[in-house]
Design goal:
Blueprint (H helix, E strand, L loop, with lengths): L1 H23 L1 H16 L18 H7 L5 H4 L7 H33 L7 E8 L6 E8 L6 E10 L3 E8 L2 E14 L1 E8 L6 E8 L4 E8 L2 E2 L6 H17 L5 E4 L3 H4 L5 E11 L12 E7 L7 E2 L10 E10 L6 E8 L7 E9 L9 E6 L17 E10 L27 E11 L9 E7 L2 E4 L10 E10 L7 E9 L9 E10 L1 H6 L1 E7 L7 E9 L1
Antiparallel strand pairs: 1-4, 2-3, 3-5, 3-6, 4-5, 5-8, 6-7, 7-10, 8-9, 11-14, 11-18, 12-13, 12-15, 15-16, 17-18, 19-22, 19-26, 20-21, 20-23, 23-24, 25-26
Helix pairs in contact: 1-2, 1-5, 1-6
Family: Belongs to the synaptotagmin family.
Membrane topology: Single-pass membrane protein
GO molecular function, one term: lipid binding
Length: 548
Amino acid sequence: MGLLSTIFGILCGFLNSIFSLFAFGIGTSIGLVIGYYAFINALPADVEDVKVCPLVEDDLETLQRLIPEIPLWVKNPDFDRVDWLNKFIENMWPYLDRAICATTKNIAKPIINEQTPQYKIQSVEFETFTLGTIPPTFQGMKVYTTDDKELIMEPSIKWAGNPNIIIAVTAYGLKATIQVLDLQVFGIPRITLKPLVGIFPCFANIFVSLMNKPHVDFGLKLLGVDLMAIPGLYRFVQELIKDQVANMYLWPQALEVQIMDPEQALKRPLGILDVTVVRAVKLQRKDLLGKSDPYVKLNIREEKVAFKKTTVKRSNLNPEWNEEFSFVIKDPATQVLELRVYDWDQVGTHEEMGLNVVPLKDLTPDEPKVLTLVLLKTLNPNDPQNDKPRGQLVIELVYKPFKEDEMLDDIDDSGMMEKAPEGTPAGGGLLVIIVHEAQDLEGKYHTNPHVRLLFKGEERKTKRIKKNRDPRWDEEFQFRLEERPANDRLHVEVYSTSSRIGLLHSKESLGHVSINLVDVVHNRRVNEKYQLIDSRNGRVQIELQWRT
C-alpha cells in the first residue's frame, strides 16, 4: 500500500497543478497538449524489427546481458525452484485477481480519504480495477529456519502484467480520468510470519520488507494522454517511487499486517472464574441526602473484554447483591480480578467509591473462597488517601480449571452460535450487530441518545431514549454479505437529538468509534465496550457475530 499511496500522492499533486492551470486560463493547457503531440510526431518512425540470433558460448557480452533474466534458483543454490507455485497462481489468477482488487480497494479507500483534503479534491472513485490476465512469476524462493516461532521467506517476484486501472478524480467541479496500465514490478520482499500459533491460520502477524529497491514501471494516461512520454517525467516518477517505497519498507523497516491478537492467540483458556458479589458494608455517603446508589464493576485486568457490573441499589450504604458472574481465564498465574464500586448519578459522572484487586494466583483451584475486601482510593500502598475508611466489599470466588480432555482453543461463554440463514452466499455470511448499552454519556445541551451504525454505505439507527446517561437498547441489526468483512470497519456514532422547537442545538454528537471487523471474522463473536472518541467517559457496548 505504500506504493499505492506514493502513486496517489504524485497523481494528486499533478492533478492539482493541471486544475490550477485551467483556473488561470485555457490557453496554457492547450499549448501543453500541442507541444506533447509535436513531441510525439517528432519521434523517428523507422523502428527495426527484433532479430532472433542463436546464443554462442564465446559470446560473453550476450551472456552477461542475459544473466539478470536467469532465474535465481539457477544462479543461487539458496533459492528453491517453485514451478508448482507458479502453476497454482496461473490457474487461480482469475479468482485471485477479483479478490486482490476487492481487498486493495477496501484498503485504499481510507488512505485516499485521508489524502484528498490537502489537495482540495472532492472525490476519487475506481471506475475500472483489474490486474489483467498475466499473473506474476516467482523466479525462486529462499526459506530461513530460526530458533524463534517464525517462518521467513524471500521470494523473487517478477510481474510484467497488463492491468487496467481507471480512476475518476473530481476537483474544482471538473472530472478527470487517470489510467494505469502496463505495470512491471521486480523485487525480492522478505515475508515473515510470526509468531506461529496453534490456531488457524497458524500465525498472528505478517511482516513484509524489501531487501533492495524494487524496479517499478508503468504507463500513466491522463484524459487519454500518455504522461510518461513527456520528457523528464518518466525518470523523475520512477526514482521518486523507488525512494519513497524504500524509505518506508526497505529492511529492517517492515509493513505489519495483524491477522489476530498475538497475545490472545498464544494463550488457550485454562479455566473459568466464578465470582459472586455478595454485599458491601459501611459505604461512604455521596448524595446530598446522606445516601448513595452503589453498583460494582468487575473485569479481568488487561483483558480486552467488556466490564461486567451489578445492578444499582438505590439509597443504600449496606447493599446486598448476591449476583454471579463468570470470566474465562487464560493465565491464572498473572491475571488479576479488579473490582470497583461506583455511586450512580442521573446527572454528571458516576463517582468511584473505592476499588480493590484479587490476584488469581492466590486462589486454590476448585475451592470456594470468601473474601472481605477493604475499599481503597488507589492501588498504591503508600498513598495516605487509603487510610480513610471507604467501606468493605464481600465476594465469593472459585476458580475451576479445565481438565486435560476439556481443553478448548476457544471458549464462547454466550452459548452456541447460530448459523446464517439459508440462501447466504457460500463465501460470505451474516454480520449481526447488537447494540446493548452505553454508559457515562454526557451531552452539552441535552442527553437523548441513539446510536447510528454506518457500514458499507448503509445506515441503521437505534431508537431514541430520552434523558438517560446510561441507556440500554439491546437492538439487533443484520447485514448479509457476499464475502468476509476481514478488511472492513464499522463506524458507530452516538447522537443526542431534541424535539423542542426553536432549540439552537437540536442535535449533538456524544462520541464515536470505528471498529475493525477482523476480530469477529476470526473469533466468530466479539462482545466489548468501546471508549467513545470525543467523549470524556462515554462507552458503548457492541456485540458482533459472524455467522456462516
